[in-house]
Amino acid sequence: APQFDGVTKNGIAMIFDGEKTDSVFFQPAQFTELDERSDQAGQQFGHSLALGKISSGGAGWLAIGAPTWTDLKRVKANLGRVYLYEMKKNGDFEARKILKGDEEDQFFGNAIVGGVDLNYDGFDDLIVASKNKISIFNGDRDDLINTGQFFFIEI
User: Fold this and answer.
1) Whole-angstrom distance, CA of residue 150 vs CA of residue 18
2) pLDDT (tens digit, 9 = 90+) per residue, 51-91?
3) Pick from 20, 115, 119: nearest CA to 60
4) Which of 84-93, 107-116, 141-150 has the highest average model confidence (pLDDT)?
5) Best-predicted range by mean pLDDT among 47-56, 86-95, 131-140?
6) Which of 72, 81, 91, 95 counts the highest number of beta carbons within 10 A?
7) Residue 24 and residue 112: Cα distance in Å, rounded?
8) Is the dihedral of CA 84, 79, 9, 72 positive or negative?
């Protein structure tokens, strides 16, 4: 729900289990320990979603895109972000990483694909689309997504 409240357009994402009355809500405010600017109005958190698996044991990650996140300190609009949660084996989620766009009007996180092991290493990789490139991040056992090793394709 990228424009959840209709005013701030901050957005939320949620998992609804039809058998239970509980829902799990995800909000960018859950990442303020990693970056105090995470809870920004207008970023359209929840615009895109993807899931990936770390191992056959059931743990994995959830990626949520916010393509209109803006760096107000550097006055760069629509850089975009992807927020990564780790899914624990017990069903809990932990805010773990923020992937960031680096160009103005890039809209990083506009589309996300997960659940594919492109390099056949046993870990699902993450594909993030933006206005002018596709970034591919390799899955990693310890870090969920290895942000040090990625490549992009300009389009």
Assistant:
1) 37
2) 887 655 557 888 989 898 888 888 888 999 998 888 877 77
3) 115
4) 107-116
5) 131-140
6) 81
7) 20
8) positive
Pairing of strands 144-154, 93-100: unpaired
Nearest alpha-carbon partner for 60 in 136, 135, 124:
124
State the Cα–Cα distance between residues 150 and 154, nearest whole angstrom.
Answer: 13
Residue 145 in this model has a pLDDT that exceeds 60 = yes
Nearest to 105 by CA among 153, 155, 69: 69
pTM: 0.80
What is the chain written as a DSSP string? -TTTTSSS----EEEE-TTSS-EEEE-GGGGTTT-TT-S-TTS-TTSEEEEEESSTTS-EEEEEEETT--BTTTTB---BEEEEEEEPTTS-EEEEEEEE--STT--BTSEEEEEE-TT-SSS-EEEEE-SSEEEEEEEETTTEEEEEEEEEEE-
